[in-house]
Write a structure and sequence with these properties.
- The relative contact order is 0.05.
- With 82 residues, the chain is mainly alpha-helical.
- It is 79% helix and 0% strand.
- It is built from four helices and no strands.
Length: 82
């Protein structure tokens, strides 16, 4: 139990330090290095896939899926759930 508390406390302190660095804009060097690596390894097909995934989670698709599920539940006699 003591080890778990120690690990959790260390993780909390680490995340707090990273959060402080980001808030104070002190992470530009690290962020630039990560961004450069990501851009050099970018593949167009994966970029397109993740763009599609991002767009699928936007408002219109979510509302459409929700409406379809409600109609399906309504027709399946689960009106209280719908």
């Amino acid at each position: 139990m003591l080890v778990a508390v120690g690990v959790a406390t260390s993780a909390l302190l680490l995340f707090a330090k990273v959060g402080e660095d980001v808030f104070e804009h002190e992470s530009a060097t690290f962020d630039g290095a990560v961004q450069g690596w990501m851009l050099s390894h970018r593949r167009p097909e994966l970029f397109q896939l993740f763009t599609w995934i991002t767009n699928a989670g936007s408002t219109l698709p979510i509302l459409t899926v929700t409406a379809l599920i409600c109609v399906w539940l309504w027709r399946a006699s689960a009106r209280s759930v719908a």
